[in-house]
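haha ok so turns out i had the wrong file open the whole time. this is the CORRECT one, sorry everyone. sequence first:
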Amino acid sequence: MAFPVLGDYPLIYHKYSADPTGLEYNGRLYLYCSNDTDNNTNGPYSMHSITCISTDDLKNWTDHGEVLQVPQDAAWATYSWAPSVITNNGFFYMYFANNASGIGVATSSVPTGPFKDAKGGYLINSSTPGAFTTNQWYFDPDVFIDSNNVYLYFGGQVPTNARVILLNSNMTSISGSASPMSAQNFFEASYMHKYGNSYYYSYSAGSTIQYEMSSNPISGFSFAGTVLPNPPYDYFNNNHHSFFTYLGVWYCAYHNRYLATLNGIPTGFKRNVCLDRLYYYTNGIFQGRMQQVVCTSNGLPQLKYLNPYNQVEAETMAQDSGITTEVCSEGGMDVGAITNGSWTRLTGVDFGGGAATFYARVASAGSGGNIELHLDSLTGTLIGTCPVMPTGGWQTWTTASCSVSGASGVHDLYLTFTGGAGSLFSFNWWQMQQGSPLQITGATYNVDTNSMTLVWNSTPPASFTTYTLQKKNSLSDPGWTTVATGIPSGGITTTNIDSSADGDAAFYRISTP
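then structure:
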């Protein structure tokens, strides 16, 4: 069936996810989530992996797969729930819960993992000084750095179980004992952030997110109210949130059960992540407090249009139906389990003056199929059909292509997959090209270095071609001067620098062997 076009819940359609925590890094927003796809439909909670998605426009999200899996990434753990991720010391640190029995820490050198166990056992459990109570849940970690101090908040089940403990600068060991946090109505899901000179300790009170404020990150808190009511389609069930900035704007990530409702399955253990704006009162008696989050299905604006002339991962999408993602032999993830009628949608694709060619990196151990390119709806204008031939394996990759016409300006792009019965093919990435092969699409002269940077359209098969770059100062000159030979293809477009440019007029040409 065709799903309604939504944007801000669910963020992804092909897997269930919950307990999101946000991290901005190098111009992208990453969300790390419990992987509810691990849960049986009727429970219990048994998540044993953490999934990661990212975006740079808030509408099109890239699936980075399962970035922590236990026990393979942490041999002592059986579960991995409710992550908290931070970057420090040149690494990324992920704190996760092994059910309610304790908290571990894993590290990675990149935000997309894989994260690997950094300690060989629990960081927090019942033996941690100051943590124990007879009904403590040792879970829901939240890491927070302030004034060179590293704090870890955790705990659950009753208000007196909320805890905070200092971590050492290595981020993987504790310093001293855990201390109780004052938390009216606290149940689980601790989260700490700072805005201005105030500290905000927020947490789940069951079905709502409430918070307290202080001028100190560990004491002196006063109850401030509810910041996130129970969202639509959450049915007064649990919630778990995070607050963070992306490009200077505050957001709230949380979960509800909309996707399970849409798919007609029980909603208790199959959650999906959501994203909305967070605002603060800037004056009046509530100055400094957080305003209640307004939950929307499509309330966030797209921050920038998607450029189809850059390589786009197939697992980047705003919406999808009938696909899964899997680890790709060429790195990252790919879209798999493609069958006749399945599709993906990208929001706000800027074709500019018009696309001429579509390229797709594909593999098929079956009969292959087609990728139909439609504008604005599943039955919208057909701008191209890319045939996919069998390659002999689901990870045996080739680059397919087709001509494109009628695509200019900004549109949503639907990639609809057609073919025979069963699985058709795997899909790694796609990219469009303006103009014809060997057409120079960009030339930039650097006066400081007397160099000319040229960009041109590659010729298919893009990954196997080399080029020769030549120039002359006048078309009447009898011969061409070779600038460079054996230039390797850059994919759909290729870039090379003429470091001997002198600022005078010059004519360039590109040729293949």
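The mean pLDDT is 93.
again sry for the mixup
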